[in-house]
Amino acid sequence: MSVSQNEAISQQISNLIRDVHTRRATDVDAVLGELTESAVEYVAGAQYAGITIAGRDGKVRTAAATGEYPEILDEIQQRVENGPCLAAAWEQHVIRIDDMESEQRWPAYCRQALLETPIRSVVAFQLYADNQTMGALNFYSETAGAFDAEAVESGLIIATHAALMWSLMRRDEQFRSALASRDLIGQAKGMLMERYRIDAGQAFEVLKKLSQGANTPLVDVAREIVTTAERPADVSTQ
């Protein structure tokens, strides 16, 4: 792969990373969509791309995809509970299938993929993996043997940058969630202070006791108070 192509890939992904910092949280799916669209252009032989998210509970979903086949193949992976994208994320950083018809590692997956799609080649790259979930960036082709060493190299470069972008998005999402929770708790405290003429510390103790008594997260108690604007059960602030 030429240096100029490498630089082009890096610049494209860098632009998307910059977008993560400027877009609203609701635009994350759009950023992922742009990533997969761009990725197909830079991996020789690729006709489709998709991002697979899977959990330890066995649930698999498609976070972004070009065309319908990545989603169908993710559905098959969930159905048969294995496949190259899951293996790339949980077990290895890179997985390649040269031909679905001769692949021996995931017979059930390959059999269903051949029945339900025209896909013959797959190359999958790990984006991230933690104790609960994993992510993989995948490329697909209707031609057997579509992905050579150069295509794998291009995919690795894209996946490396994409992994950084994914980390930034997850961190941003967690930050926004924390801010939203803080705001809800603050609103609930304010309502309690006004209703019962108590100070901020006493209001927070009320929320804590309501949370403990109902075995419900504090933020959910706060959300209920703010949403319904109903008088909560009497709880001593002493």
UniProtKB/TrEMBL annotation:
GO terms for molecular function: RNA binding. Keywords: Transcription, Transcription regulation. Residues 165-226 form the ANTAR domain. SMART domains: ANTAR. It holds the Pfam family ANTAR. This is Antar domain protein. It comes from Mycolicibacterium smegmatis (strain ATCC 700084 / mc(2)155) (Mycobacterium smegmatis).
